[in-house]
Write a structure and sequence with these properties.
Order of helices and strands: HEEEEEEEEHHHHHHEEHH
Bound molecules: zinc ion
Distance between the termini: 27 Å
Strand content: 15-25%
Structural class: alpha+beta
Strand order of the largest sheet: 1-6-7-5
Shape: elongated
Low-confidence stretches: none
Length: about 280
């Protein structure tokens, strides 16, 4: 799933590629993809794309005073193509046909249709329920006090940091990297952190900025559907910790996995499964 650094590089590259492009027409072949109906998509015809930006993990495509707020969910991708999609392409969700022949396409892979878009007045995006309910952006990192308040919750850090209403932009991949960087257990609770641990966790958010810098250096004008992510710990179970050499361990959940260095994060304890993990803090 695209997280803050991946959506940021997509937004930057699309912003550069699409600036000033004129919309010819817009189609929404995805069933139920549009969560708004007024204004209709036809209101975009003849408008210029004025910006592509990001809020949390959501791309926002601006057309003057109208904006398309997009939630990619786990399998959505936003990309520009030189030619129009075949209408038989089942991955198509929203197609923004441009006057120069190109097409901005929201596609979704797999069988589930979960990605969605809303066409809103640009000045109404911030007040949209999905945006207004977001916690502070994880990058650029919020001030320490704001961050400390955001994570002062009696929940394990792994789900807490991924909870967009508490802090926005972090998902299942980068949470492992941030906790490893901070040398904190994924099962420690937000309310259990002392001042030094909060500072370490706050400082560790730099891995998101580092990832964006990495993408700026390695990704050209077109962002591939599957961005090669510079992850050191996530999905690296069985490999030596890049810092201390201890074997990286994993905890598997039904839809995701968690990776950590037992030596540096859990006091040497290896968490075998979810049931056992719940007993540890
Ligand atoms: Zn280690």
């Amino acid at each position: 799933m695209p997280e803050l650094p991946e959506v940021e590089i997509v937004a930057r590259r699309l912003d550069a590629a699409l600036d000033g492009a004129v919309v010819e027409s817009v189609l929404a072949p995805g069933m139920n993809v549009m969560k708004t109906f007024d204004p209709p998509l036809s209101a975009l015809e003849g408008r210029e794309i004025t910006a592509v930006r990001r809020v949390g993990k959501m791309p926002v495509v601006e057309f003057g005073d109208l904006a398309l707020l997009i939630h990619l969910m786990s399998a959505g991708r936003l990309r520009v193509f030189d030619k129009r999609a075949s209408l038989k392409d089942r991955a198509s969700r929203v197609l923004v046909r441009l006057g120069d022949g190109r097409e901005l396409r929201l596609r979704e892979f797999g069988t589930k249709q979960r990605a969605w878009a809303k066409l809103l007045a640009s000045d109404a995006v911030a007040a949209d329920e999905m945006v207004a309910s977001l916690g502070p952006e994880a990058w650029p990192a919020p001030p320490l006090e704001e961050f400390a308040a955001a994570i002062d919750k009696p929940r394990h850090l792994h789900p807490l940091l991924r909870h967009q209403k508490d802090i926005s932009g972090i998902g299942r991949s980068w949470v492992d990297e941030i906790l490893w960087e901070a040398r904190l257990s994924p099962f420690k609770k937000g309310t259990e952190l002392d001042a030094a641990e909060i500072e370490r966790l706050h400082a560790a958010l730099h891995v998101l900025g580092d990832a964006i810098d990495h993408y700026e250096e390695t990704i050209g004008p077109e962002v591939p559907d599957k961005v090669p992510m510079p992850l050191k710990v996530h999905k690296h179970e069985g490999e030596p910790c890049p810092r201390c050499g201890t074997t990286i361990e994993a905890v598997f959940f039904s839809e995701h996995q968690m990776n950590y260095c037992p030596e540096e994060q859990t006091g040497g304890r290896v968490l075998k499964d979810r049931r056992l993990s719940k007993l540890l803090k």
